[in-house]
Amino acid sequence: MPKSLHYPLANRDSLPRWRKQLLQRLPFEPVSAETYQVHYYDSFDWRLFRANKVLQWKQRNDESLLCLHSTAIEGPRTVMPLDGQPSGFASALPPGQIREELDGLLGLRALLPVVTTEIRSLPFHWIDKEGKTRLRVFLDHHKLIDADGNRRTLGKEIRVVPLQGYAKTAKRVTSVLEEELGLSPADGDLISQALAGADATPGGYSSKLDIPLDPQMRADEAMRRVLLTLLEAMEVNEAGTIANLDTEFLHDFRVAVRRTRSALGQMKTVFSPATLARFRDKFAWLGAITGPTRDLDVYLLKFEGYQNQLPETLRADLEPLRAFLVRHHEEEQAKLARELQTARYRQLKKQWRRYLTAPLPRRPAAADARKTIGEVAPQRTWRMYKRVLREGRAITEQSPADDLHELRKSCKKLRYLMEFFHRLYPAKKIRALIKELKGLQENLGDFQDLDVQIHKLKEFSEQMKQEGDMTPRTALAMESLLMGLETRMQEVRAVFDSRFRRFSCKSNEKHFRRLFHPSQV
Amino acid sequence: MKVIACYNIKGGVGKTASAVNLSYLSAREGHSTLVWDLDPQGASSFYFRVKPKVKGGARGLFKRKRELDDAIKATDYDQLDLIPADFSYRNLDLTLEQLRKSTTRLRKLIKPMKSDYDYLFLDCPPNISLVSENVFQAADVVLVPTIPTTLSIRTLYQLLRFCDKRSYRHLKIMPFFSMVDRRKILHRGMVEDPPKTKSGFLANDIPYASEVEQMGVKRAPLAAYAHSSHIADAYRSLWKEVKSRMDGVPA
Lengths: 521, 251
Description:
The complex is a heterodimer. Chain A has helices spanning about 15-25, 45-50, 95-105, 165-180, 190-195, 220-245, 245-265, 275-310, 310-315, 320-340, 345-355, 375-395, 400-420, 425-465, 470-505, 505-515; strands at about 5-10, 30, 35-40, 55-60, 65-70, 75-80, 110-125, 135-145, 150-160. Chain A is globular and about 90 Å long. By secondary structure, chain A is of the alpha+beta class. By secondary structure, chain B is α/β, with parallel strands linked by helices. In chain B, a hairpin with a 5-residue loop joins β3 (about 75) and β4 (about 80-85). The model of chain B has no long low-confidence stretch (mean pLDDT about 90). The interface of A and B includes residues 78, 98, 132 and 164 of A.
């Protein structure tokens, strides 16, 4: 398919004048003008943008189309008729290629509206004597519609749409535009202009941490920068968490809270004891109020997996569990939304921000505050690494699950320290070590997840009995599910030894030492 | 890409009308669709207002001297392209005969387009020849518009026997009644109690309607100018049934 060509015009140019120019020079037939809106969508974390895709929904004349195309070239695209605006998850769309593709790209994330533009278009067709269209030209005036419905000009352009098999006509038209009228084609990326106009930064949000730090920075200053980044991550995810747009808002919100708590604990020598005492409890509270909803999110996300674990005859019997989960999720979500709109939460954010942005104390009470971050961060990381080794080596086949949980927590703390300060180390080396750690964390994470699930499902089962939701068949299905989970847990436990051995091997130790404890190399 | 051939040994039974109208419906649903007008009479090219001319003619295409891509013309409708007819297609049999593996030439020629289009409709010339064999080798589905008369049914039997002998295992043959005039006793009787064939008949038929003849004046697919007509509905139902049969579910 030949590419469309875009010739930008000045914003003050009059379209009727251009229309006259075109009609004088080329044998176009004008077609009646039209105005239509284009709505753009992406996930909150820009998964489509990152995959070089654009999703738009157009309403034009009497048809509405959903169109997924690539940003890189104006070529491959998939279209399907769709009456209402797309909303929520890809799975809510009618079956077809677009749904499949979006499903793969979006995962757990919902589609959210990004920006809406309105196009006033004057079309012209080049029609041959058979009555066949050989080329289309549009004089387009693009406007951005903001949240209040106000319109603002984004740009004007002449858009030439050549048709396959009619290259000569296209050449004639472009030569008139370029040579006689002095226009030159641009890449016509009005979408990114629209996004910029709407204050949306494509790719502007990612749950990955990337905090620019200088090793010579004062440790307390560096920590404030880390914590401010985490506070911003919380705030960015707040509205989506309250509205429950998808499960990942709350997930990312909780990760930011957990990282904050971990930073306060692990870098405690950088903060004054009074500050620590003041904020530690506040963030613990935030962790506690967001927990129940996240737990239920997890069970609901896993639900289909649970069903598939069971023999087909038992699958339907698990449905009362889903109803139970959904009901409790609604209650917990409402509670959470209320908590995040309380003065208590607002105060927490305000005080925290005030602390993080206040001038640095000249004579700080904390022991390490004035040291450089290049000195403190590796020390703390090395300490945590040694703790992981110690705890891991103490684990035998007879060790209780609690020992593994403790090790898991230590691994998490180590991971956070490595991620907060990853800019202080050579990128390739720190990445490789994080990867090694990840391998161990996955095993420990699976083990913990299964352990918690087993306990929780037993608890749910009791609760369901009390609330009168339990039937003998459902009890049987849940029993069978639990047995499956227990087997799986044993399998995961059996792999721990080899995973830990790999992580704690001599060569890894050498690399950890080089990065975090160079004086002893 | 699914290849759907609109085919009948007899002429004037509604092959071109099916190819044009069904391909239009497919494109409107968002499927990238191509029509190849294989009939030298060039009726579907005419309906789409494209000149029935291919540079290099049939020989150029089948002897691979010209790229098939270069022969493709966009129609006036989004997602719907056409390879026009050419007068040289009248000698397509002779051209094919001179080539090795002469029955699978068409299949080979369209193979590179598999990723570009969701559906390819072949508007076939009436007769049973080497061209037809190429069509049967290349197609997944053969749609056979059949007028409910004795002679038409006879040609359908001929076709079924021909395909049986050559055992085209991949091929789904889907006859349906076309140009049905319910005022005629013969038509009514045959549609209500279709003759027994191995392939059976599709449940939906296309009635005789003057709107179809209007296509020649309007030079456009039916749904483009008579969207809510009874006959446009008939094509929509037929297309729905064809799609579900292709997926192996009876509609």
